[in-house]
Amino acid sequence: FQYLKRFDQGRSLDRFQYKALSVEGSPAECLQLLFQHCGVMDPSWAELHNFTWFLNVQLRDCEASVFCDPGFVGDTLNGF
């Protein structure tokens, strides 16, 4: 949700890191963003679960990768 919210606001995600235990927005806002971005017109709970699971895995891997670290790569991958 933290990433999707910032993405929708047009903010840069290059230096953003997930903040564990940080509460942002309401449950309704979270569901609205998930519905908007999951890619399925009328998703089931299972489809929302799979979407959030996949997104979390990808974002966790991205945060852990040295190749996505702005301190390591500088501005060579700006916006990647």
TrEMBL record:
InterPro entries: RNF213 (IPR031248). It comes from the Eukaryota. GO terms for biological process: negative regulation of non-canonical Wnt signaling pathway; sprouting angiogenesis; ubiquitin-dependent protein catabolic process. One of its GO terms (molecular function) is ATP hydrolysis activity. One of its GO terms (cellular component) is nucleolus. The keyword Ligase applies. Keywords: Ligase. This is R213A ligase. It comes from Molothrus ater. The gene is Rnf213a.
